[in-house]
Amino acid sequence: MKRLVIPLLLIVSIVCSVSCTEKKKRERKNTLVVRTLDDYADMPGGVVRNIYADSTPRDIYFYRVDEQGNRTDELVKEVHCYENSNIYIEGDIKHSERDGVWNAYFKNGRLQATQTYKEGVQVGEERVYYENGNLMYKGQYDNGICTGKWEFFDESGVRTQSLIADDTTIVCRSCPKCLRLMGKSS
After folding, report:
1. What is residue 10's three-state secondary structure?
2. Which residue blocks in the chain are alpha helix, DSSP H?
3. So where are the chain's domains?
4. Separation between Cα atoms, residue 123 and residue 113, nearest integer Å
5. Distance between CA atoms of 54 and 36, rounded to whole angstroms?
6. In this structure, are strands 135-142 and 46-51 parallel, antiparallel, or unpaired?
7. On the chain, which terminus has fewer CB atoms closer than 10 Å, C or N?
8. Is the model more confident about 22 or about 163?
9. Is 151 helix (H, G, I), strand (E, B) or coil?
10. Which of 112, 149, 151, 115 lies closest to 134 in space, CA to CA?
11. How far is it, in rounded angstroms, from Cα 100 to Cα 90?
12. Interatomic CA distance for residues 88 and 79, integer angstroms
């Protein structure tokens, strides 16, 4: 009997461990990670440009700080906030242009969109989410033009449409190619 119990307990332990790990992965996808001004409390070089009526910062610009601790004129990051001090949008700046990953958030702190820029031009994957945390759509940009496969989802996470962003298909509705196809100038 003892020989049977130990392997049985081991199997139950493994099944529970795998099950719990999968549950944690599903929960992590919709976890709220609220970004607030506190995340930037220790970052030097910040200048508040605009405030709300209650004196809460609305727009903060961060400048490079030199070796002596002096703020330079080189802008390196922008952070824009809601009145509740949660971050609305944040990202890095290089040579006065968006550069790197930019994230936008809903007022409740959940991620709304993530985009990547290089020298002010959108590149790489863009992901946009519903307020419940589920993916609304994802697609790729190449040198500011939507390209490749784009997938669209309903609020429950079910894929509703898949498009290939070729020279004749309107997909993102905002890049120069899509604007031209819609008869609008960019």
Report:
1. helix
2. 2-29, 176-181
3. 33-112, 120-186
4. 14
5. 17
6. unpaired
7. N
8. 163
9. strand
10. 112
11. 11
12. 8
